[in-house]
Amino acid sequence: MTDRLFLLNPGWHDDAGGPWYCPAGAIIEGVLAFHPALKTQLDITRLDHPRPRPAVISQVGEDHQSCPILVLDGTFDWPEARTSEATGKRFLQDEAIIPYLAARYGIARPHP
Cβ distance 38 to 107 under 8 Å? Predict the structure, then answer.
């Protein structure tokens, strides 16, 4: 199995205007750019902004559609992960993804 990362495509518009990008997603994209090997180690899916997001819902349920989200494959224990009540899968969102990637895949960590 593989950890599954869901990110939003940039450049969307909504009722508040646009074009927009996801700030937390941009940070994760930066981590992927710094550590390109992650792109082959993770199952990465980029989604358009509008909800519902069926690919995410199938993994963690409707209550956790915010991206970025990393659905853990269950082979690496991470106590900080949340558990989906809908599917029982463990996941991390936003910048909480980075410490997990550092611990599991050996990438650099952000400076404190």
Answer: yes
Query: ∠ at Cα 48 (28, 108), nearest 5°?
Result: 10
Q: Letter for the amino acid at 30? A: G
Per-residue tokens: 106: 């050996």
Give start and end residues of each alpha helix (H) in the chain.
Answer: 23-34, 38-41, 54-60, 97-105
The residues near 53 (Cβ < 8 Å, ≥ 6 apart) are 6, 47, 65, 67
In the 8-state DSSP scheme, what is residue 95? G
CA-CA distance, 63 to 66, in Å (whole number)? 8
Q: Where are the domains of the chain?
A: 4-105
The pTM for the full model equals 0.96
Query: Each residue of 20-64: pLDDT tens digit?
Result: 999 999 999 999 999 999 999 999 999 999 999 999 999 999 999
Q: Cis peptide leading into 19, omega within 30 of 0?
A: yes
